[in-house]
Amino acid sequence: MNPKTGQPIKVAVIGGGAAGFFGAIQIASGGKCSVTLLEKGKQFLSKVKISGGGRCNVTHHCLDPELLSKHYPRGERELRWAFETFGPKDTIRWYEERGVLLKTESDGRMFPVTDSSETILQTLFQEAKRVGVRLETEMEIHSVIPKSDSKFEIKLKSGKILEFDKVLFATGSGRKAWNWLEAMGHTILDPVPSLFTFKISDRRIDDLSGLAFEKAECSLLEFGYSQIGPLLITHWGFSGPAILKLSAKGARELFEKGYDTTLRVNFLPGMKKEEVRKRIEKEKELHPAKLINNTPVLGIPRRYWERILEIHSIAASKTWSGLSSKDLHLLTEELTDGRFRISGKGEFKDEFVTCGGVSRKEVNFKTMESRVVSGIYFAGEVLDVDGVTGGFNFQNAWTTSYIAAQGILSSV
Ligand SMILES: Cc1cc2nc3c(=O)[nH]c(=O)nc-3n(C[C@H](O)[C@H](O)[C@H](O)COP(=O)(O)OP(=O)(O)OC[C@H]3O[C@@H](n4cnc5c(N)ncnc54)[C@H](O)[C@@H]3O)c2cc1C
To answer: Helices (DSSP H) in 212-250: which residue ranges?
Structure first.
């Protein structure tokens, strides 16, 4: 209650995505505030609906806050502690208490057992209704201005002015909100895309779309980033978890270089170059009469093996006994230190996120309140926080909005 007016504290949550919706529910369930959720679009939760290919990858089954925080190229340090307050275990419990069971896939991603994002949408809507969140769509906001009496004026395009005691910004990567925040004195780190595939035009992978390597080490040498994981050849280059995670790590540098740099692929991570060389040489001893073409080494997919032999002019008719030291060197290099030129950024339709946003230094992650303007709070992708693919981005939305709600509730 506002002690002067005896009225509940008025909170505006701007942005009806995962962070705003969850934050509004958490604030309203505290029973101290009247909460209005303002969404500029026609619908709430539009990204949740299409997320995870329509299945919604709600979170990740990584329950250790320290390990979990390592999945965030931007925000690791701050989220390490935030996850102690509200982590995947809490997300799982929160949904479970509302009748939504989550299942874990072999790679740790968690989805509703219904395999439908509608389940998540319905739960959030029911809960918002139950705790009395006022839901407003098509709210074209013209400006948000802090007033001298510590209140906030939200001016709508229609000219109408609304007044609130606190404002939670959960506007995702909406440029307008960043402009208002800049005008209030916040630093916005330039937004650039994260989570994408690499465009690579190279004879070694031409027409091999669909070919997968279970484990490869992919590195952006120029920027010093590496990632081990499954690698997939696509029509336009490389994709798969290793590439997507690497794109997140190098999102800013790749953008600045116009997505033009060198990718190194070690198709045999865990083995030293010398070991690989010896292992190939051993084939010569063991099977001198066999065709090199017919005996891919170390689990390298046959089509890729044949392709690199072809490219290095190692004839299909050549047997292991004819392997020259030059061939041995070329094969070893190709398998452990393959260099590919990235010439652009490809699409990844399952998940997409923006790197950049409100500077983390200007936010107190214990409350998610701004250190620049008191009374405003942040949650979700509006911040310079983003995770790799796998449910980490929604977990950031649930965690930061939960903490923002507690921050607001403890301040009133
Ligand atoms: C196709 C796709 C699939 C994805 N799948 C997954 C997944 O399975 N798992 C996962 O963890 N992550 C996934 N992500 C990432 C995840 O969706 C985002 O990280 C998450 O939605 C961020 O939540 P948010 O609430 O911060 O922002 P958003 O979801 O972007 O919500 C922000 C909301 O604010 C509104 N808004 C913006 N500006 C204003 C304004 N000025 N006034 C009023 N309203 C405003 C927007 O219209 C929007 O509704 C996916 C992303 C995409 C694009």
So the answer is: 241-249
The neighbouring-strand residues paired with 355 are 192
- Ligand 1 midpoint to CA 17 (Å): 5
Are 95 and 102 in contact by the 8 Å Cβ rule? The answer is yes
Residue 140's pLDDT is: 85
Which residues approach ligand 1 with their CB closer than 6 A?
A: 14-20, 38-41, 46-47, 50-52, 56-57, 139, 141, 170-172, 174, 176-177, 350-353, 380-381, 391-394, 397
**Residue to mutate, 121, 393, 399, 401, ligand 1, most ligand atoms under 8 Å from C-beta:** 393
Ligand 1 centroid–CA 18 distance in Å is: 6
* Nearest residue to 405 (alpha-carbon basis) of 191, 110, 94, 195: 94
- Atom nearest to 380 CA in ligand 1: 26
For 12, counting Cβ atoms within 10 Å of its Cβ (0-12 exposed, 13-18 middle, 19+ buried), the class is buried
What lies within 8 Å, CB to CB, of 284 at 6+ separation is 320, 321, 323
Sequence-ordered list of residues with C-beta below 8 angstroms from that of 154, at least 6 positions apart, any chain: 12, 14, 38, 141, 143, 144, 161, 162, 163, 164, 167
Q: Which CATH superfamily is domain 9-192+352-411 in?
A: FAD/NAD(P)-binding domain (3.50.50.60)
Q: CATH 3.50.50.60 occupies which residues in the chain?
A: 9-192+352-411
Q: How many CB atoms lie within 10 A of CB 169?
A: 31
For the CA of 379, the closest atom of ligand 1 is 26
- Distance (angstroms) between ligand 1 centre and the Cα of 47 equals 5
Check: CB of residue 170 under 8 Å from CB of residue 405: no
Q: Ligand 1 centroid to 316 CA: how many Å?
A: 52
AA identity, residue 102 = L
68 touches 164 (CB < 8 A): no
Question: Residues of the chain whose pLDDT is less than 50?
Answer: none
Contact indicator for 397, 379 with CB cutoff of 8 Å: yes
Residue type, 371: R
Name the residue with tokens 């279970």: 214
How far away, in angstroms, is 393 Cα from ligand 1 center?
9
**CB-facing half-sphere around the CA of 298: CA atoms within 13 A:** 25
Q: Which two tokens stand for residue 341?
A: 């030129």
